[in-house]
């Protein structure tokens, strides 16, 4: 069992080991490993080593990259805390994007409420898409993993079709959403040197607080977690387990749908025809895993993987393959996955220290 210190220590060790692996690869390939640190520093703060001044575009883009990852991590984390693995989160992100885009373009909404309404439509679409594996699991005992994977591909192809038939669409993208339906901000655009930073960070903050409150502080959250921990025990205690299972997946799907809406309303401002995943939902698995599926941990995990993502092009411009960032990300997830090995060495070291004192 983890204690409080180990919950922080294990992911931290995993991050350090992942970065060390990246350094080793750079050294072995005769490249300057300081490029990695300078790129990470630039992506995080906008400071370029050896140059005066700060370019706030880089922290702004870090926020833009991180926001959907945090929501994806919350989506995976919520389902996991309730005893399920919502690998269909990627499809729910896609359907949230599609619904937000279609609604924003096709439905006239009063200016004051447009952005909020479109966000809620995206969340609802993600929740309804997650309802499918939920009902299949409760009624036919079909694993949410199997149905979720298939629904990911279904969602991707459905979205590609509908994006193409929206009025004014090309083969690659839709028309822009009305400005009042987006989360873009001229204020942030100007102060961050023309980055895409938008009001979506407020949505993320609200979701993080609600995630923590529902999971940790409410009877409702306790019932959802109890169902996932022991379905038969929860049923014996009077909890409606089928309902709890479906609601857990739908809330998880709503968070993923919000991530999709954020991509449309904040990051891009239009729908993109794509036959490949954005990997927000899949990256959310890594974010939730590194963050231990708790609210603050997911936020920190989201920033970590967001930083690694925006560091990749910076590495490439310095002559270092951008895949180094992918290697570090994968290594961190791997080291977190073997957390019990890390715990073994931590406990062994403590035991050795205790014996030496005696």
Helix content: over 70%
Query: Ranges with pLDDT <50 over ≥5 residues?
Result: none
Radius of gyration: 22 Å
Query: Quick one: overall form?
Result: globular
Structure, explained:
- With 358 residues, the protein is mainly alpha-helical.
- The protein has a domain at 65-298.
- The chain is built from 15 helices and no strands.
- It has helices spanning 4-28, 34-45, 57-81, 89-106, 114-140, 144-165, 186-191, 200-217, 219-229, 231-236, 241-268, 280-290, 295-317, 323-337, 339-357.
- The longest helix is centred in the C-terminal third of the chain and has 28 residues, at 241-268.
- 47% of the residues are buried.
- The mean pLDDT is 91.
Please name the defining characteristics of this protein.
about 75% helix, mainly alpha, about 350 residues, 15 helices
Secondary structure blueprint with pairings:
Layout lengths: L3 H25 L5 H12 L11 H25 L7 H18 L7 H27 L3 H22 L20 H6 L8 H18 L1 H11 L1 H6 L4 H28 L11 H11 L4 H23 L5 H15 L1 H19 L1
Short description:
This protein is an all-alpha fold and 358 residues long. It has helices spanning 4-28, 34-45, 57-81, 89-106, 114-140, 144-165, 186-191, 200-217, 219-229, 231-236, 241-268, 280-290, 295-317, 323-337, 339-357. It has a domain at 65-298.
